[in-house]
Amino acid sequence: MSSELAVRTEGLTKRFGTFTAVESFDFTVPYGMVIALLGPNGAGKTTIVRMLATLTEPTSGTAVVCGHDVAHEPDAVRSAIALTGQFAALEANLTASENLVLMARLRGYDRVAAVKVAKTLIDRYDIGEFEDKLVKRLSGGQRRRVDLAAGLVTRPQLLVLDEPTTGLDPRSRQVVWAAVRELVAEGVTVLLTTQYLEEADALADQIVFIDHGRSVATGAPAELRAQIGDQRVDVVASDADGFERLVAALGATFNLTLAPERRTISVPAPREALDLASVTSLIVSTGAAIDEVALRRPTLDDAFLALTGTPAQSDDEQVEQEEVPA
């Protein structure tokens, strides 16, 4: 296992009875990078994180985190990482500030140092406006920010963020993103699980697409987009009659991708501007009523669907809660 890697797994597998949550998962996380595990509900992301954090024992395979084997050196792994899970792990009857001081004391700081660390975290994560409120009185987004801060009372070699912006409002999400970027700039390695393609695209150096407990693709965001082809022209017809006319006219020349329920036709976009103009002229010649004609580049949503066969979950859908099967 290379000393240049914060995480390396080989054949990592977890079964619960007859159910396989993660199967032969191989991946690496170099120091100083942000790696995102991206997948739909039940893909196995949280199970992977729990194994790496020594909260769940692998059924088979190996995992080394910050130079320590998770099966044989769990205490050393825990001392090297910080984990923020999907749900805030805070004392509800203490204030936000008191929670941070408590966590610092548990990590070995004396009273004066703990208060100083808490103040620094309050400033960094924009907690000041509610630092004296009981946690049980905070909004979900506010609790999430306090929870993230609590995990960083010491500087970890590896920060593991499991769905870090779930349930956050746009402002809180931007605060978390800025904090992640700042930590990476200071040398912290980040392993991130998310269902938000926008989040993975904004933060990650590398993305690992996971489906049914397996890695199905790995690469930089731009590389994954490139795997599914070039840009396209999307044409949205105003009505069903126009949709049929456009299909007939464009289908004679191009290989089309159709979404009849949205009356959308996708045409591979020519690289030359002159040829692109000929496509738009053909669209106009049909006389069909058009709601939209747009030139689009491949998105991570497109890559996710192409590589997994599963639509990525949008921000307004319910977030993943991977339950351990009974």
Polypeptide structure, described:
There is one protein chain. The chain has 326 residues and is α/β, with parallel strands linked by helices. It is 35% helix and 26% strand. The chain is built from 11 helices and 14 strands. Strands 6-7-8-3-9-10 form a 6-stranded mixed β-sheet, with helices on both faces. The two termini are 34 Å apart.
Summarize the structure.
With 326 residues, the protein is α/β, with parallel strands linked by helices.
List the helices and strands and how they pair.
Blueprint: E1 5-16, E2 19-30, E3 34-38, H1 45-52, E4 60-65, E5 68-69, H2 74-80, E6 81-84, H3 96-106, H4 111-124, H5 140-150, E7 158-162, H6 170-185, E8 189-194, H7 197-203, E9 206-211, E10 214-219, H8 221-226, E11 232-237, H9 240-251, E12 257-259, E13 264-268, H10 273-285, E14 290-296, H11 300-308
Gyration radius over CA: 24 Å
Strand content: 25-35%
Low-confidence stretches: 314-326
Instruction: Average the pLDDT over all residues and give the rounded result.
Output: 86
- End-to-end Cα distance: 34 Å
Any key phrases for this structure?
single chain, 14 strands, 326 residues, alpha/beta, six-stranded mixed sheet, four-stranded antiparallel sheet
